[in-house]
Every structure is written in C-alpha cells, then in structure tokens.
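FORM 12-B: Structure-to-Sequence Request
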C-alpha cells in the first residue's frame, strides 16, 4: 500500500510540473503576440525626460546638455501615431500628439539656456503628455 501512495504522489508531482511548464509556455506565447513598440517608445521618452530632470537637479542646463534629449524626444514624438494605430484616427489623440511635437519644436528652436527655463520646458512637456495620458492611458 505504501508503494501505491508514493506512485500516486510521484505522478501528481509530474503532472504539476508539466502543468506549470505548459502554463508558462502558453503565457509566453500570448505575450509574444503583444507589440512591444508602444511601451518601448514611452520608456525611451520617459528616460529622456528623466535625464533632463537630472540635468536640472545637477545644475547642468546648458544647451549642449539639454538639446540632445530634446532632439531625441522630438524624434520619438514623430512615431506616436504609428505606435498606437488604434488611436491614430481619434482627433483628441492626434491633437495631443501634435501639441507635444509643437512644444518640443519650440524648445528646440529656442533652447532653454538656464535651469529655470529647462524647468518650464519640462512642465510644458509634462502638460502635453498629460493631455494624452489622462484620456488614453490604460
């Protein structure tokens, strides 16, 4: 009798391990179908905003410190509609994306030359991001 119980317990463990492996494989297959581009785009933009904030905190607010980040933000802003094809035809979404690009164009054309100006630009960029995120962020 003790041998039978051990066999059932062993089969239970094998079934448990196979079930866990099948679950992980299934979840990875579902996750592989998800487009990583929208999330990656937002992460890149968030990183550049964070670097600008670090520059302000470190009192490194020369145009040579801020322009590369502003340029990268502007470049990635061109891809917002492509990153979210389901929202591309929504007027609120395209208006918010256009506002972000306009804010970044203004900042690049008239680069902030001191930390107070960089702080103002960061606030303007944050407001442009918020306009979209409050309506569309999940």
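FORM 12-B RESPONSE
SEQUENCE OUT:
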């Amino acid at each position: 009798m003790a041998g039978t119980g051990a066999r059932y317990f062993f089969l239970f463990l094998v079934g448990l391990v196979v079930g866990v492996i099948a679950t992980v494989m299934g979840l990875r297959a579902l996750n592989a179908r998800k487009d990583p581009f929208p999330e990656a785009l937002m992460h890149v933009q968030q990183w550049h905003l964070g670097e600008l904030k670090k520059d302000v905190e470190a009192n490194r607010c020369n145009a040579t410190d801020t322009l590369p980040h502003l340029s990268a933000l502007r470049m990635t802003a061109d891809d917002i509609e492509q990153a979210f094809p389901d929202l591309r035809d929504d007027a609120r979404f395209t208006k918010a994306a256009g506002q972000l690009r306009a804010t970044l164009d203004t900042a690049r054309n008239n680069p902030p030359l001191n930390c107070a100006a960089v702080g103002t630009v960061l606030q303007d960029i944050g407001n442009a991001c918020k306009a979209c995120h409050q309506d569309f962020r999940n």
